[in-house]
Amino acid sequence: MSIPLDNLYHWVESLLPDPAVLYVFRPSGSKKISDFDWFNAYDRATVYKFPGIIVHDQEPLDWDYYNPEERYLNRLGLPLASDFAKIQQKYAVRFNLKSLVIIKNSLLYDNTILIHSEKNSYDLTQYKQNGFIGVHYWAHAIIARDWYRFAQFDSRLNQPNTQRYKFLIYCRDWSHRREYRLKFLDLLAKNGLQDNSLTSVMHTNSDGVHFSQHKFLNPEFELVDPEIITQFENNDFCSTSSADYNYADFINTEVSVVLETVVDDQRIHLTEKTLRPIACGHPFILVAGPGSLQYVKDYGFKTFAPWIDESYDTEPNTLKRIEKIQQAMLQIKNLKGQEYKKFLTAVKSIAEFNKQHFFSDTFFNTLQTELKDNLNQAYILVKNTKGKHYMELIKLLKNQNFIHQLPRRQERTLFLRQLRQSCQDDPSNPQEDLPV
Questions:
Q1: For the CA atoms of 281, 282, 286, 292, what is the dihedral angle to 10 degrees?
Q2: What are the residue ranges in the chain where pLDDT is below 50?
Q3: Alpha carbon of 15 to those of 153, 228, 274: distances in Å?
C-alpha cells in the first residue's frame, strides 16, 4: 500500500502563522537529496519573500548524512547565469539541508525552520547550532490517528482473549539502526521467552544481507551463535505493514513489546509502532530510547508500573535496557493463578484508558496546540534574523570579481536586480548597491 502524507502537510500549512515554502521528501522515508524538494508548486515571482520550512518529521534527523557535494545540487535549474549558479551553489553547499532553501527560495532569512519529531538528539543540536530553528511535534501521533481510526469501533478487538501467547513482538527489518533487534531475539530465545511470544523476523534484511553475514555497528550486539535466529519464523512483511493492524494478533496475546526504530541512541523518536497497541487497547512494553515512557506520559497516557517493572526506561545503556526489559517479561511469564488475573485486570484497565485518550479531542488538541505554538515561536525567531546570506554572497561575488565578468551592462543590471530582490522588501536589512 502507499502511504499518502500530503494531507498531513496541508494540515501543517494550515497552522502556519504566515506563508512559507515547505520542503519535503517524496516518497516518505527517503533520505535521498534528489527526493527533497518543494511541497507545492509555489509562485516563483513571490517565493523569495517567504521563509523556508523543512519538514523532517517522519525519519530520525541525520546531520552527518547531509553534507552535500555540488553534484547533488547540479540538478537545479536556476534562472541566473550559469557561472553565478556555480558560485551560489559553492556558497550554499556548506549549509546541509538548508542548501536547497538558499538556492531555490530564500537569501532573505538567516535561519531555516526544521519541523521534527525527536528529543534528546545530538543531530538536532547540530542543526540548531548551524542556522536551523527546531519545531517539535509528535507527527506519528497525528498519522496514527488516521491509520488506526477503525480500531476505535472495531468490535473484533473486544473478543475474549485466547491467551495463546503472552507477548506480541513485531520484528520485521533489522538493518542499520535496527540491528539491536537481532540481539533482542537472541536473548528472547536464551531466556526461554520465545514460546511465549508471537513473533517472526526477516532472515535477510531490506538491504539484502542475511543475518549470518551482518557486521554489527555496536559490538555489544554480536551474536555468539547467529544460527539461533533460525529458530524464529522468517517473514516477508512489507515496510508499510505498520500502517495497519491485525486484530487477531492482539486478541491472541496479552502484552505488546514494541521494538522501535531508534533504540541504540539517547534520542527519543517514537513512531506509529508505539501507538498501534495504544489504539488497539493493548498493554505495552516499550523498547526505545531512554526516557521514552516519560515522553508518552507527557501526552496524557498512562504506563503500567507497578504492574510491569518500568525501571528499564531510565537505563542509558542499550544492552542493559534490553536485558531489563526481558527481566520484566520473565516476571510476567512467571505470574500464576489469581496473581496473573489481578495483573491482567489492572493492565487492561490502563490500556482501555489509553485507547480512549488516543481517540479523544483532548489528545488531538494537545498535538495541534504544540505544533501551532512552536511554529509561532519559530516565526518570531526566523523573522528577527535577516540578510546574512545575501551579504555574504555579495561579498563572495565581489572577491571573485564576478560582476564585472558579465559581458553586457543589461545583463549585469538584471543579475543584480534578481539577487537583491531577496531583501528589497525588508527595510531593516542593509542594502549594498554595486556598480553596474
A1: 20
A2: 1-2, 76-81, 422-436
A3: 29, 50, 26
How many other C-beta atoms lie within 10 A of the C-beta of residue 194?
Answer: 16
Going across the sheet that includes 36-38, the strands are: 36-38, 21-25, 52-55, 112-116, 132-136
Q: For residue 435, what pLDDT is reported?
A: 31
The x, y and z cell numbers of residue 159, run together, are: 473478543
Please, what is the Cα angle at 68 between 56 and 51, to 5 degrees?
50
| pLDDT confidence of residue 90 | 78
Contact 126, 363 (CB under 8 A): no
What digits encode the pLDDT tens for the residues 300-312?
A: 999 999 999 999 9
For the stretch 251-306, pLDDT in tens is 999 999 999 999 999 999 999 999 999 999 999 999 999 999 999 999 999 999 99
Q: Residue 217, exposed/middle/buried by CB under 10 A (0-12, 13-18, 19+)? A: exposed
Predicted structure pTM score: 0.89
Helices 337-358 & 361-383 angle (0-180, nearest 10) = 50
Set out the domains of the chain in order of their start, with CATH numbers: 6-136+386-420 (no CATH), 151-359 (3.40.50)
